[in-house]
């Protein structure tokens, strides 16, 4: 068999070599900014651009889009614009589920913080600043179970009921304050699945009870489990422990406390294991010690000059020393209100000397102390008030200060919040003392010397607590008025404050985010006023937030607004 002959057609031309040399004198080498510089040089040039210019350069070419998204560039941009290495609004030490980690470019993974997606963090912070978010609406699953036979369920006032909200990582824990025969908490996961934690195994036979407060353990969990305490109107409370990664598993009841005598309702609580602090509606502050495996009432303090609403912030200065900051309402002559704050140092040492006796600690008085085996006791307190009348004769400067304080007093207080550094007090519904308050001030008016305070403006104070010292020249605590925050069109229903950021919920549904350091705000949700029988009926609600979302409960609905979009 003969070999197959070649085709008579001509062979295709040889491929052109992509080389530059003397063998191809006619080849023209076009130099450009992209192929003449190394990536390192381009990244160095990009480091001088702003974040807006970096976003613009990504539309130039694929190579520039890859380089402009470099993690180190966005880390520098984030630190330059926002001045911190984390997202604002985080509380406690529990891990955040669903974080976005990235793999850095080769040769740039020097520090562990480079594994954060700084561009994604910049986008989230920018969404907070501009009020851009996605909205998810779900029903309040705290439905009352049927009452036992022989009991008649009385209807509750809708405006007096509210929903307690706790954010724990990716979980949302809610509980209704409506009286029911089987109080329960609802855990909502990131995939919108709901799990129930019942306070009792069977419905109550002696009458309904309501959940008055919730508190999440802020201490680092040793075994990855979260602990949450639930307080009831009967005076008892429970501490449940559950796994946040699998909330469908049955939680365990870790502690149970039943008071030996009649107690008043707990409306506020903070938990940092092994310390649990509660405040009742008569402003009785109770300190519980959970270090021995059971609940022991260590000390009770009572204040006759402090009133709700109040806010508590508990932190651990060391393994044996805790600091509690309480912000509350104080009465002002003749029938008005202002704000005050108290710092309490709580020690675990058995040789503690008890409550301090200095004149600045006269706000709280010791009412009860447990046995000598109890180690949680208050050792010192310091109190500061935003409105205080000096004794004796005063000069013109002090008189001018008193007049400014007098113009800021309120007829009603809707809410008071603190994060240990800032204090905010919101006026409640009702006419303001100043008759000129009907004039709507400019939203950009943030002058601290302005005497115009509207009934919808939030009063912002700076809380200064210098280190305690026995020296005569030691600086006293200060509560300085900073500015009035204008922007709401109705009185405020609820506040949430953490890490220098405040979220306010109005009675008309308007939600605003405040940057307390810069004094700026952004509207997250417009007013949604409901009409019933032709009459405007504002609805009270509750609000909570973390570094990525805002959760509000109002009119029987729980709404989640996410900023990580």
TrEMBL record:
Gene3D superfamilies under this entry?
1.20.1280.50, YVTN repeat-like/Quinoprotein amine dehydrogenase
Q: Which UniProt keywords apply?
A: Repeat, WD repeat
Q: Where is this region: Disordered?
A: 433-454
Q: Where is the composition biased (Low complexity)?
A: 437-454
WD repeat ranges? 485-524
F-box domain residues are 37-77
Q: Which domain of life is it from?
A: Eukaryota
Which is an annotated Pfam family here?
A: F-box-like
Respond yes or no to whether keyword Nucleus is given for this record.
no
The name this protein goes by in its record: F-box domain-containing protein
């Amino acid at each position: 068999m003969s070999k197959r002959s070649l085709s008579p057609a001509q062979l295709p031309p040889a491929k052109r070599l992509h080389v530059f040399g003397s063998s191809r004198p006619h080849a023209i080498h076009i130099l450009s900014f992209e192929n003449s510089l190394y990536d390192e040089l381009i990244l160095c040039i990009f480091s001088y651009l702003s974040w807006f210019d970096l976003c613009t350069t990504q539309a130039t070419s694929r190579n520039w889009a890859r380089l402009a998204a470099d993690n180190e560039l966005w880390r520098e941009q984030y630190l330059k614009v926002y001045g911190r290495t984390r997202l604002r609004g985080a509380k406690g030490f529990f891990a955040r589920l669903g974080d976005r980690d990235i793999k850095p470019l080769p040769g740039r993974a020097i520090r562990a913080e480079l594994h954060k997606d700084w561009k994604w963090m910049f986008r989230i912070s920018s969404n907070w600043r501009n009020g851009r978010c996605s909205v998810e609406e779900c029903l309040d699953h705290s439905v009352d179970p049927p009452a036992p036979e022989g009991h008649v369920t009385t209807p509750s006032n809708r405006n007096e009921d509210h929903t307690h909200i706790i954010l724990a990582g990716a979980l949302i824990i809610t509980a209704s304050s409506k009286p029911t025969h089987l109080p329960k908490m609802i855990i909502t996961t990131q995939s919108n699945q709901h799990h129930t934690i019942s306070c009792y195994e069977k419905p109550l036979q002696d009458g309904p009870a309501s959940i008055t407060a919730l508190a999440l353990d802020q201490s680092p969990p040793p075994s990855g489990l979260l602990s949450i305490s639930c307080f009831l109107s009967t005076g008892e409370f429970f501490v449940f422990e559950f796994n946040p990664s699998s909330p469908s598993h049955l939680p365990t009841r870790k502690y149970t406390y039943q008071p030996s005598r009649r107690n008043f309702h707990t409306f506020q609580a903070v938990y940092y294991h092994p310390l649990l602090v509660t405040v009742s509606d008569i402003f009785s502050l109770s300190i519980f010690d959970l270090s021995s495996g059971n609940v022991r009432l260590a000390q009770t303090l009572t204040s006759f000059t402090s009133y709700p609403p109040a806010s508590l912030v508990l932190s651990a200065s060391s393994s044996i020393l805790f600091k509690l900051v309480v912000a509350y309402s104080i009465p002002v002559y003749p029938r008005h209100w202002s704000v005050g704050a108290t710092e309490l140092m709580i020690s675990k040492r058995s040789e503690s000397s008890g409550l301090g006796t200095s004149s600045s600690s006269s706000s709280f008085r010791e009412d009860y102390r447990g046995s000598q085996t109890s180690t949680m006791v208050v050792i010192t307190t310091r109190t500061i008030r935003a409105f205080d009348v000096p004794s004796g004769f005063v000069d013109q400067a002090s008189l001018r200060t008193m007049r400014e304080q007098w113009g800021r007093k309120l007829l009603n207080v809707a809410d008071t919040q603190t994060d240990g550094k800032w204090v905010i007090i919101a006026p409640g519904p009702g006419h303001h003392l100043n008759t000129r308050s009907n004039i709507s001030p400019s939203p950009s008016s943030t002058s601290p010397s302005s005497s115009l305070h509207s009934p919808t403006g939030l009063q912002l104070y700076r809380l200064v607590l210098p280190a305690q010292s026995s020296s005569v020249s030691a600086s006293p605590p200060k509560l300085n008025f900073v500015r009035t925050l204008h922007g709401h069109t109705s009185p405020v229903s609820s506040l949430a404050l953490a890490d220098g950021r405040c979220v306010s919920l109005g009675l008309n549904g308007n939600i605003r985010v405040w940057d307390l350091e810069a004094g700026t705000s952004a509207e997250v949700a417009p007013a949604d006023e409901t009409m019933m029988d032709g009459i405007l009926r504002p609805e009270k609600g509750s609000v909570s937030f973390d570094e990525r979302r805002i959760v509000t409960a109002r009119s029987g609905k729980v709404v989640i607004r996410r900023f990580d979009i």
